Amino acid sequence: MDQALLVGLNLNSQYELMSKSLDELEHLALALGIETKEKIIQNAQKITPRFYIGSGKVQEIKQMIPVLDITMVIFDDTLSPAQLKNLEKELEVQVMDRSFLILSIFALRAQSKEAVLEVSLAQKLYMLPRLVGLGNSLSRQGGGSYNAKGPGETKLELDRRKLVREISIIKKELEKIDAEKELSRKQRKKNQIPVVALVGYTNAGKSSIMNSLSELLNHDSEPVFEKDMLFATLDTKAKRLKKQNYPPFILIDTVGFVSKLPHELIRSFESTLKDVVEADLLLHVVDGYDFDERQIETTKSVLHSIGASDIERILVFTKKEIAEKNPPIDDDYIFVSNRTKENIDVLVDTIYGHLYKESRITHLLIPFNQGQIYSQIKENNTVLETKYDENGTFVRVILTPDQQTLYRSFIISKKA
Length: 416
Ligand SMILES: Nc1nc2c(ncn2[C@@H]2O[C@H](COP(=O)(O)OP(=O)(O)OP(=O)(O)O)[C@@H](O)[C@H]2O)c(=O)[nH]1
Ligand SMILES: [Mg+2]
Description:
Layout: E1 2-10, H1 15-31, E2 34-43, H2 55-68, E3 72-75, H3 81-91, E4 94-97, H4 98-109, H5 113-127, H6 135-140, H7 155-190, E5 195-200, H8 206-217, E6 237-242, E7 248-253, H9 263-268, H10 270-277, E8 281-287, H11 293-305, E9 313-318, E10 334-335, H12 344-355, E11 360-366, H13 371-380, E12 382-389, E13 392-399, H14 401-406
Parallel strand pairs: 1-2, 1-3, 3-4, 5-7, 5-8, 8-9, 9-10
Antiparallel strand pairs: 6-7, 11-13, 12-13
The structure holds guanosine-5'-triphosphate and magnesium ion (MG).
Magnesium ion binds near residues 206 and 233.
């Protein structure tokens, strides 16, 4: 097992926040099997360009390394390529930053072809500007060995060109996958089925909510993977759910967020996160037991950076059965338990309330030769009444504004 020393720079004199951030870093490290031996916080006014922390602190760390048997030093923030290089040279152990750690966890978890490509793209984007500094860390990731060096070309330049080439190949692969997914997105739009996406901090309980909702609404579906671990879900899973006598909706479970999520990851997960961006409603899931308001802020800021901040959001807290008190927050929320299933039914009603709040009871008269329209409406909507007369099938049904447009030629003004 690697033994790590964690380092945080406290710039805003918010010691407590920094200490929480280092606790989270410890969890991230543990996810890779790295044990934390010691945590150090330096209070400072500004970042030192050469070492990120002050050079006195670097010497202090250097002395601790042999005493504590440290094999790597992990910084809580993103280090510049130069800082990384200077620190590795000075400390003579492997040095990594929070971004590298998160990227490595993602790499460990990625299973589907899409996730593997996305993570690999993020890692390569991260490496590109750091080829000079990442000597030790990079060689583990397969910097590659080369036999054919062109005249006058350095290994560095070859590495760089190889990376650039690989990045463009992966991007093309991802575009292909995205084009296929685009088809199913278009199909959903055409069928007017609304999309609800689960978003939130990693380990908040998103996948568990998907399972609770599926159990209640769709008994025969396979559960998705839920586990007490960081980034359990990397792949998007979509399920069609439907309350009896109500129209269906698509529920999407996807990757969780964490504070200081590397921007390379956000960029390369574009295709996965598109499902979130195109959703009609977001369920912002928050751990209601281990409540931390900053996790809400992190999620909001990631949503903002992917262009999803204007989508309507319902705040959902989990783990109600073990929480001692209500989360101290002014916003409206629903507090559920995925263990006892308390309030899962309330969540369902709230989802329907949001999706169909502009829906209207509409009267339609569908000629008998348009039977498929009637089946489509019955399948996807709440039909309140059906009657047959010589002109066709009369239906009293709840329609969304979009559906009112779609079926406008069948709308009649009052009861037949
Ligand atoms: N006691 C309790 N545990 C819960 C509840 N909801 C979720 N959990 C547990 O919390 C852990 C994380 O749940 P997940 O559903 O995997 O979390 P997630 O948000 O999907 O996490 P990522 O996929 O990593 O982003 C699991 O061990 C769940 O069993 C709840 O209501 N009560
Ligand atoms: Mg999950």
